[in-house]
Structures are given as structure tokens and as C-alpha cells.
Design a protein that fits this description.
about 260 residues; alpha/beta; eight-stranded mixed beta sheet; 10 helices
């Protein structure tokens, strides 16, 4: 019996070790693209490579509107690349907003790999600083989709954008993990990527709009209800009734809500 429990303990500690040191493989699912890959399905855009402090270059797409009112800095979810995410730009270009979408390290044509939450946030801030060289900060809308919400909320808390939009945001990754694994088999300190959207929303002076599908099967809708507790009186939670995590971006309901948001702000 002692030997049996000793084996279980060793296996548990091994799993904890793997979880701590290799969690990037569990959180991020990048699609890589060849350097000569051509984005043939998009229009009115330019490719950009922006160098980070350590010399690595991140690839991005800048979609141009004819008479832009401002720009949407779009931080996409944890899977894919700009090949798939670039299509979201049309929703905002239709309302005369430029759209800037970067690929994280290791995604698409971006160099390097994500190694820490601090590095991820530093990269996003560096990209934002580059954007401020071309656009007044009061014309920049920061948007975070799913896991991109954590970096978007931190960016908005530490800068002064026009607006923060969060789409299907986790309250935090430890909170999401607790919901997915309710038995609390693993201590939360093992999760090195906190991405504490709720914490940073409290520190954000800019208006905040949260959109979340009521039937989200990946990031539970209650995440946004928790974030709502930290919203300012003028901030808004929009519930997309009957919609899930991956199926609302192409719906008329979503596009109508975005149109209303852009007109309001």
C-alpha cells in the first residue's frame, strides 16, 4: 500500500513539473506560416515586421479604411495565425476604422516563441508604442479576443486608449482552470500565465465594453459576470444570447453590436 501511494505521489509531482515548465504547449496553439506566404483572401492591407527589444521581429497586418476615424488594435485568440484572424478586419473597416492585428511570437510569420507572461505583455506594449507613432492615442481602440483579453486589459490599464473591447474574456487563467478542473487537483501557483483580465479592468480609465456568448463552451459566460463586478457605471456587458465561443464573429448579431459600439464611442 505504501509503495502504491508512493508511485501515485511521484506521478503527481511529475505531472505538476510538466504542467509548470511546459504549459506554453497547453495554452498556445500557433499556426506557422512560411516567410513567402501570401494573404490572397484579404484586401487593402500592408504587412509589417516590428522588432522587439531582444531583436525578434513580430509580423502584423495593417488593414486600411478609406477615411479612417481611428484604429482597432486587435489581439487575437490562442490558436491559428493571421491567415485566419485577418478576416475579422472587415467588421471594423466597414465603419471606417483601420485595423492592426499582430501575430504573437511563434505564430504565423512572427519570430521566436512565447516564454513568459512578462515577455508577452512587453511585446504588446512595444507594438502599441509603434502604433502611437502614427495614430493619436485617443483614436486607438484596444480589443482582446478570448486569451487576448488579458494582454488587452493590461495594456488599457497602463495606457490611455479611446476604448477597451473584450470578447469572450476569461476572468483569469487560474479562474478558468478551476472551472475546467473543479476538483482543484493542481495548485493555482503552477499556472505561470495569470492573464488577470478582471484585475486590470478595475485599473482601466477608458470605457470598457464586454461581449460574451451565453452558451460559450470554452470560456464560461460567468467569467464576464465576474468582470462585470469591476466595471465602471458607464461600462457595458453585452450578452450574445445563444452563441458560443467560436461561432459569433460571423453573425449578424455580433456585427450589429459592434456597429452600435463604434457609433456610441
Amino acid at each position: 500500500m505504501i509503495t502504491f501511494f508512493s508511485i501515485l505521489l511521484i506521478l503527481y509531482l511529475l505531472i505538476c513539473t510538466l504542467l509548470y515548465f511546459f504549459q506554453e504547449k497547453m495554452i498556445f496553439y500557433p499556426q506557422t506560416l512560411a516567410e513567402d506566404f501570401e494573404f490572397q483572401n484579404f484586401r487593402n492591407f500592408e504587412e509589417r515586421y516590428i522588432e522587439m527589444q531582444d531583436g525578434k521581429k513580430l509580423h502584423s497586418l495593417l488593414f486600411k479604411a478609406e477615411d479612417p476615424k481611428g484604429i482597432v488594435f486587435y489581439l487575437h485568440g490562442n490558436a491559428g495565425s493571421l491567415e485566419g484572424w485577418g478576416s475579422v478586419a472587415e467588421t471594423f473597416r466597414a465603419h471606417n476604422y483601420d485595423v492592426f492585428i499582430p501575430d504573437y511570437r511563434g505564430y504565423g510569420k512572427s519570430e521566436g516563441s512565447i516564454e513568459s507572461e512578462a515577455q508577452l505583455h512587453e511585446d504588446i506594449q512595444a507594438l502599441y508604442d509603434e502604433l502611437k507613432n502614427e495614430y493619436p492615442e485617443e483614436e486607438i481602440i484596444v480589443l482582446g479576443h478570448s486569451i487576448g483579453s488579458g494582454s488587452a486589459a493590461k495594456l488599457a490599464a497602463e495606457n490611455k486608449p479611446k476604448l477597451l473591447i473584450l470578447q469572450a474574456p476569461p476572468y483569469s487563467l487560474p479562474d478558468l482552470a478551476k472551472k475546467m478542473f473543479p476538483l482543484n487537483l493542481f495548485p493555482s501557483f503552477l499556472i505561470r500565465y495569470k492573464l488577470e483580465t478582471g484585475k486590470y479592468v478595475k485599473q482601466t480609465d477608458a470605457p470598457v465594453v464586454v461581449l460574451h456568448g451565453s452558451e460559450d463552451e470554452i470560456v464560461y459566460y460567468g467569467s464576464s459576470l465576474k468582470i462585470k463586478e469591476h466595471l465602471k457605471p458607464q461600462d457595458t456587458l453585452i450578452t450574445l444570447e445563444g452563441l458560443g465561443h467560436n461561432n459569433f464573429l460571423d453573425t449578424g448579431i455580433y456585427r450589429k453590436e459592434i456597429e452600435s459600439i463604434l457609433r456610441r464611442y
